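pipeline/complex-builder :: batch 7 item 3
reading input block
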Amino acid sequence: MSESPMPTKVGPDPTVHSGPTLGGGAALPRAGRGLERLFRWFSTGAGVLVLVVIVAIAAFLITQAIPALRANQANFFTSTKWLPNDVAHPRFGIAALAYGTVLSAAIALVIAVPVALGIALFLSHYAPRRIATGLGFVIDLLAAVPSVIFGLWGRDYLSGPVTDLSGWLHRYLGFIPLFGSGGPYGNSILLGSIVLAIMVLPITTALCRDVFVQTPKANEEAALALGATRWEMIRTAVLPYGRPGIVAAVMLGLGRALGETIALAMTLGATFGVSIDLIQVGGNSIAANIANGFGEANATGRGALIASGLLLFAITLIVNVAARAIIFRRREFVGGQS
Amino acid sequence: MTTLSQNGSLLAGSLRRRRLPKALPPLLGVAALGVSAAGILGTGAGGWVLTVVVAAVLFVLATLIVSGAVEGGRRARDRVATIAVYGAFILALIPLGSVVATLLAKGTGRIDAEFFYHSMNNITALDSGGGAYHAIIGTLQQVGIAAVLAIPLGLAAAVYIVEYGRGRLTTVIRFFVDVMTGIPSIVAGLFVLAFWVLIVTPVFNHGRPGYSGFAAALALTVLMLPTIVRSAEEMLRLVPQALREGSYALGVPKWKTIMRVVLPTAAPGIVTGVMLSIARAAGETAPVLLVAGGTPAINFNPFSGNQESLSYFVYEQAGAASQFAPGRAWTAALTLIAIVAILTIAAKLLARRSTIGR
Amino acid sequence: MNMAKRVEAVDVTAYYGSFKAIDSITMTIEPKSVTALIGPSGCGKSTFLRSINRMHEVTPGAKVQGKLMIDAEDIYDPRVDVTAVRRAIGMVFQRPNPFPTMSIYDNVVAGLRLNGVRKKSTLDDAAESSLRAAHLWGEVSDRLKRPGGGLSGGQQQRLCIARAIAVEPQVLLMDEPCSALDPISTLAIEDLIGELKDRYTVVIVTHNMQQAARVSDRTAFFSIESTGDPGRLVEFDDTTKIFQNPGEKKTEDYITGRFG
């Protein structure tokens, strides 16, 4: 991505500022040239602001996290305790939270990715062209539902069916440690992950669909002309071509899942344990813990939450950078081909 | 060549294939559902969810066996793939339908004058009344301020990328705009907390952190900015180069060309992107929770004192220990989604009418 | 191994939505010959070609009416399996379109794999003989596992020909196979076409009349009255007759460059 120039085909005319050929700039009175410069500086500044904000996020989170980390009497990375508000012995560690974050995100992806691929294929290659746009809009609507509403729905409505499901899973599959708990059921990793899966679905679907739609017609026709069925055409032409894009889409979904706050704050059990069990009441995540714990946090507690947020920022940044790098490289690759 | 003709014989034959009658696959589906219902509902082994799941599995298996026997394995796999793809889409409709149904069932209970004209001030757990007036005020102010900040900055950044940008800096900025769309809202909230609430405001506030609606607006700005830049960038790129050149040829300076020609041409598409980002910002809860603090009382001043927002109100009421709280939470949720839906649908309709869109 | 088949079109009419692209084409294409379809842009020659292996209907809204017989079997009969038709009638496209993510080897055997051939030795043999038949073996035998996209345009097109003949089709359709290639690659493909007709029925659409004259035994001239009208078959005869003594005034005008 480093060497790739911008696709300047539709870009600016480079002669415009310097060019005496274009009378406008040169013949302009002083004030006009000043305005031109001001305009340019303002837009450049706005562009650079994006970079500044990302650096500033890291800088300020670090600044605010340091005092709490200094006061911490436990190992921040390995401890599963979260008692930063204990004035005499503040001790907190990220282990349980990070575990819950990764576990819930992973399960959410396991549920969401196959469905997202299916919907994306449905929209790109199965649904009649005329109604595909309209049906795509339905998925966009899903993306527009605020996370607090998914949280409310998950807690007030979905927890019922998920409790039934948990009991059923335990009864028939209880020998698997994931479903080992005999209860009580309710706010669990399973509930949180299902809600998370629904929230991750739209972005993953949208990106996969964009990738699938871009499959060159020529490759699809080549497969069909060899006598492939529709599914075989998808497997020979569409999926291999889209693989990097699918990976990127899944990673963006992962980034979304790792950072989701309110819905998980409302559907996880907010405990501080590390357990493989998905169905018992429990589970927590970095983001959910910040939302749940902020109200009663003292200065050290706030710092501890900010420290956990810093870690979350770092993880999501890495995931997003990796995903975007894949998409970026691909965009240039595709652009270079056509 | 001998092997080739072997292949030939392997593959050759009549072009005709036996096919399943058109009516058979739906019949298989109905049969699967019937068997499943009899086996599960009949014996009481599970509820309707399990019935549907088992029916789907039976349907797939039946298709594999019947189609495999009649039409061969390739056709059978194609049919199963089609079932799976359609099934995935239908599966996605279930949560959407359920959310909408639950919202309508539970959210209409508190649609009354008190809800929209009163706050939660002096409402105890035993009071049935109370409303979200203060929260609606907060949402409108916070999102409004965020829009006022994010729109010019976002447009300017997009103008920089498309009209002025060249070389590595632009590539880096473009890249990080994309990365920034993935920043979790809680991190944006923590950033404003760490920077504005805990460091900047105490200077003017006798050393005490200043939670405010404006701080929430700042966090929402961070979240809206990349979305606006990306959509505006895409729209600016769609503006034909000839339009710019035509303007330059008349001696119009570049900045005027951008303001008078380029931006107005791209305006419908840009408005769509802006409205979608506003809709998303209106639904954000985490930043408000961290930096606006929330309050049961009406606060018209976004620059001073705690403020509520609709999404935070939903969160608060959902966790409140009062039998009347869930009703308020659901009605607030319905109000919130109405705002978001109106913005989203309007944006989509506008996008469809856009002259230079796809 | 006489696999080449006769293609008989009877009143073939093709539509894109409500637009009629070709109208009542009736012609018989003999086995083991090269038939060229020529005519001005938009005359429907590619559409007709794509109706021979039912690729026309891949475009949304497109449909075909009439009968298209391959050795007396109508491929538009509802009982016929489209995938079997396309397997039996190979196609080479205007632009080389090897699968970009597959190696040269995987590209050639893609059709066989789709049809369930799994045995390595069978695939290896088929890959080699197809690549030899496409005059590509010598150039790629040492790098079969490299991506097909790394080849030159002409090599890619021969790879696509190898891919098409690996499944032993009965008819081979070529849609302006040289239009994206340089003259040397074009010559290589033309030579190849001359050899392919020993085993296949070859139908080739071309814009280039010299090419039609060089490679084909029979030539069909398609034309339209004016834009928006459907394409019609004007004349179909031996190539020498079409180019030296055309029966129709329109054909003569086109051949001599006075029209089109």
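note: Residues 1-12 of chain B have pLDDT under 50 and may be disordered.
queue -> next item
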